[in-house]
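Sequence in, structure out. Go.
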Amino acid sequence: MAFKQIINTTKSHYSQKIQTHGSNYKGVDWGSKQGQKIRFEQLLRFLNLDENITIIDYGCGYGALLDVLSAKHFKGTYQGYDISAAMIQKAKTRQTSGQFHLSFTSDAAQLKTSDYTLTSGIFNVKLETPDDQWLPYILHTLEKIADLSRKGFVFNALSSYAPLESREEDLYYADPGFLFDHCMKTFSGAVAMSHDYPLQDFTIFVNLKP
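Output:
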């Protein structure tokens, strides 16, 4: 399966989810609102939000991260990107406290290079894509994310340490050690990983300006 087919299948899946469930955790195919929030906190723990930084929310869905950024008094610049135009339509209706500049697009070509790129959950739902095709897609996407980032990027993935009895067939469980090693060798010798929070996934931060 070519990357283009994976992207089109993923786009269709999430467009259907947001149309069915609306702007909530089910609309972006998360298991719970609490899990969604925990993952956002893990992404942001590596950033200094007191600085006037620019970020890309890559796979922003309906813009749920905005609630967390607003609560943390973020004052930088936010770009939300999602391959699903239906998601972006929902995201554009989100209201924030207005202390930071934001924009949304479903066209990756419109994204401007930012200090950091964050992405949560885009590597999880593989649907019927075989594992040996999904992993190259992840690595390809990380290259794109790195190209958009000046200072660093953060991403998460479901962990291969998740118990076998709790796994779902349409989800991808990545090897944390492999992705950590890949990021160290490909992007930067300064990489951090957290795998100590109460979910079956892990978060990796790649510091491009150590």
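Check: Helices lie at 3-21, 33-44, 65-71, 85-91, 131-147, 176-186. The chain has a mean pLDDT of 92.
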